[in-house]
Amino acid sequence: MSTRTVAVVGAGAAGTAATTALRTRIADSGIEVDVELFARTGEQPHNRTLVNKGVAIGLLEPHQTALPETGVRLTADTVRGIEPRARRVHLDSGRSETFDALIIASGSRPRHLDEDVIGRDQAIATGRLTTLHSLADAVRVRDRIANHRARVIMLGGGVLGSETASLLTDAGHDVALITRSALPGASALGEAVAQQLLDLHRRQHAAYLGCSPRAIRTAADRITVVLDDDTQVDGDLIVLAHGTLPAAPAPWSGPDGIPVDSRLRALQAPDQRIYAAGGVAVHHYPGHASYRIDHWDDSAAQGTHAARALLHDLGHDDDPGPYLPTSTFSARIHGHTLTGAGHPAPATSTRLLSSEPLLAGHYLGDALVALTGIDAVGQVRERLSDLHPQTSVPS
User: Fold this and answer.
1) Residue span of the signal peptide, if any (predicted)?
2) What is the third-level CATH fold of 328-386?
């Protein structure tokens, strides 16, 4: 039997997990599969969770976020495009290669402010308006707030925005939180959890709720956000945390990501042995619309699942079954732990399971699909086995 070749596109959580799963299975069974991992040009694969937790607040240097080597060939040459029928990848360098199977795990990119926000481009050019998604972003934040008590304007009150606001406050900086929703996080976490999270923020810093930036004014020593109600908020730096978009190579390079089936096979390339995992993958839960998950542990779980599905389709492993999100996540926010498991997006209702500690269950009909809570790590772990009961997902 000739050696099969597999390309893993992307060296973040999903890509490294997929590569590790492939390498482990190859070593255990002796099958002839050659794996190549593609990172972005000039990139050292790193743990993205340490961008805000470590580098931005000066606790870590960028090199300290490096991921361990996976034991396969690593090529730092961005995959710009893929020919699905030929399973051919086109690289930044101009080189092209063909593989027997592909796992696309190229992650996500941050959402930016709309172009109609007056002064947006000037603010970006001066470095006083930044996202917090990459190591370069983290270094920009670190350098802007180093050696003084900075006034940081946080745009966005989701998990990343909330955690970063807490980290900056703990580091001695002054934070103003601006959110488009009157109750940030309610759709993802449930109203009870979101309200308690908001209460934690209000005790620590100013919060401007239900507002959107209309204009940004940049001066030599400060930056000002003008909100749609004409409120003006001054600071030294604006950090934008309005979520992410998929970052897939062509022909999936638009904002919609790569739709996958229950084994994480790309739906638009049937029978081509192309899989997607992590922030680029778009899932469809039975009885619900499509959704995407972009957090580290779930991306890693998707990468492992995609690797197992690939090996099964090549005849080297058992069918891993349908992928359903059960990974846990947590963030430390103003002395308390926001925690959860699964993904609340498919839910049609939310029920309070406990008030002390606060724990909410997210249900699709009668099926529990996610858990969220505050200071409820043990309770979430105890109920992991209750997620997705008797859920039938077609192959």
Assistant:
1) none
2) Enolase-like; domain 1 (3.30.390)
The ranges assigned to domains in the chain are 4-109+245-313, 112-242, 328-386
The token duo for 350 is 């939310």
> Locate tokens 């498919």: which residue?
346
Q: Six-digit token pair at 248?
A: 């897939």
CB 76 within 8 A of CB 39: yes
Alpha-carbon distance of 246 to 8, in angstroms, equals 16
Question: Tell me, what DSSP letter sits at residue 113?
Answer: -
Orientation of helix 296-313 relative to helix 13-29, angle to 10°: 40
pLDDT tens digit sequence for 105-126? 999 999 999 999 999 999 999 9
β-strand pairing of 4-9 with 349-355: unpaired
How far apart are alpha carbons 307 and 25 in whole angstroms?
9
**Cα–Cα nearest to 103, from 42, 23, 1, 3:** 23
Q: Model pTM?
A: 0.95
What element of type H or E holds 238? strand 237-240
Please provide the CATH number assigned to the domain covering 4-109+245-313: 3.50.50.60
Q: What is the mean pLDDT of residues 213-239?
A: 97
Q: Quote the tokens at residue 242.
A: 């309005």
Q: How many CB atoms are closer than 10 A to CB 375?
A: 16
Q: Determine the Cα–Cα distance for residues 297 and 14; give it in Å rounded to an integer.
A: 9
The model's pLDDT over 366-391, given as tens digits with 9 standing for 90+, comes to 999 999 999 999 999 999 999 999 66
